[in-house]
Design goal:
This protein is mainly beta and about 290 residues long. It has a single domain (about 25-285), classed as Beta Barrel (Porin), CATH 2.40.160.20. The chain has 2 helices and 14 strands, in the order αββββββαββββββββ. It has an 8-stranded antiparallel beta barrel with strand order 1-4-5-8-9-12-13-14. The protein has a 4-stranded antiparallel sheet with strand order 2-3-6-7. The chain has a two-stranded antiparallel sheet with strand order 10-11. The protein starts with a helix and ends with a strand.
Length: about 290
C-alpha cells in the first residue's frame, strides 16, 4: 500500500511540474511603439476683429473688419508607451507622444477692404494678408507626457481587450492664436526694407507653451510571436488649447490687433496601431 501511495504522489508531482513548465506566461513589462491619425474640428472664431489700414496716420479711425478663426486639421500621432503589470488585470502606463494637431487659418472680410493709405498707387495689403491666412496651415503640435492606469478586461491570452486612462503635462509647438502672414509690396515695405511685408491680423503678446492633457482609451492586443504583440486602439485625447476668446480694438498706443487669450478643452479622436515588444514575462501559476 505504501508503495502505491508513493508511486501516485510521484506521478502527481511530476505532472504538476510538467503543468508548471507548460503554463502560460503573463507579460509584465511591455514597450509599445504607436502610430496613428487624429481628427480635426473647429477651435475658435472671432466674428468681428478690427485691423488698422496699412499706412493710416490715425489708428483710431480707419480699420478693416475681419472674421478670423482657426480649426484643427487631421494629423499624425507617434508615441512610445511603457506598460508595467503587477497583476493579471491592473497595470501602470507611461507615455511620451507627438500629437500633430496642425491648425488651419480662417479669414474673411465683413465689409470691403480699404486701400492702403499714403502710397502713390493704392495697395491692398490687408486683403492680401487675409487671403493668405484663409486656409493657411500653421505648424502647431502637442508633445504629451502622461502616466496612469491600464486594466485588462480578461485574463492575459492570445487576444486581450483593455482600457486605459492617463493624464499629464504637454508642451505646445507654435501658436494656436497668432495670425501673421507675408504679402508682396511692389512699392516696398518700411518694416522689412524689401518688397515683402509681414502683416499682423492678430497678435498674441504672451505665447502659452505648456498645458495639460489626458487620454481615455480602449483597445485590443494580439500575440503573434514570441515576445511580440499587435495592438489597435481608439482614444479620446483631451487637451486644453489656447484660443482667441474676444476681439480687441487697436489704439494709438498699441496699434497691433492684440488677442485676448483664453483656453478651450478640446476632445480629439485618435486611432492608432502599434507593435508591442515584451521585455519581461513571468509565469502564471496554476493551483
Amino acid at each position: 500500500m505504501r508503495r502505491i501511495v508513493t508511486a501516485v504522489m510521484a506521478v502527481l508531482a511530476s505532472g504538476g511540474a510538467a503543468l508548471h513548465a507548460q503554463s502560460p506566461q503573463q507579460p509584465t513589462l511591455i514597450l509599445t511603439i504607436n502610430g496613428g491619425l487624429t481628427s480635426g474640428g473647429d477651435l475658435w472664431t472671432l466674428p468681428r476683429q478690427l485691423v488698422p489700414v496699412i499706412g493710416a496716420t490715425d489708428p483710431n479711425g480707419q480699420f478693416d473688419t475681419l472674421r478670423l478663426g482657426r480649426r484643427l486639421r487631421p494629423g499624425i500621432v507617434a508615441s512610445l508607451v511603457a506598460t508595467l503589470h503587477r497583476s493579471r488585470h491592473v497595470g501602470y502606463a507611461f507615455e511620451v507622444g507627438y500629437f500633430g494637431l496642425d491648425s488651419e487659418g480662417r479669414c474673411e472680410a465683413i465689409v470691403p477692404f480699404h486701400p492702403d493709405a499714403g502710397t502713390p498707387a493704392p495697395e491692398m495689403k490687408n486683403q492680401q494678408a487675409c487671403e493668405a491666412a484663409q486656409g493657411n496651415h500653421f505648424g502647431t503640435n502637442v508633445i504629451g507626457f502622461q502616466g496612469g492606469l491600464v486594466y485588462r478586461l480578461t485574463p492575459p491570452g492570445p487576444v486581450s481587450p483593455y482600457v486605459r486612462a492617463t493624464g499629464g503635462l504637454a508642451a505646445l509647438g507654435s501658436s494656436y492664436v497668432q495670425t501673421i502672414t507675408r504679402v508682396l509690396a511692389p512699392q516696398g515695405c518700411a518694416s522689412t526694407g524689401s518688397n515683402t511685408c509681414n502683416i499682423a491680423l492678430l497678435v498674441q503678446q504672451r505665447r502659452v507653451s505648456a498645458t495639460w492633457s489626458g487620454t481615455l482609451a480602449a483597445g485590443l492586443s494580439w500575440a503573434f510571436g514570441p515576445g511580440y504583440q499587435l495592438r489597435l486602439e481608439a482614444r479620446d485625447f483631451i487637451v486644453s488649447l489656447p484660443i482667441a476668446s474676444d476681439s480687441t480694438t487697436p489704439t494709438t498706443a498699441n496699434p497691433d490687433p492684440v488677442a485676448r487669450v483664453g483656453s478651450r478643452t478640446k476632445h480629439v479622436l485618435i486611432l492608432t496601431a502599434g507593435l508591442d515588444v515584451i521585455l519581461e514575462r513571468r509565469h502564471r501559476r496554476r493551483y
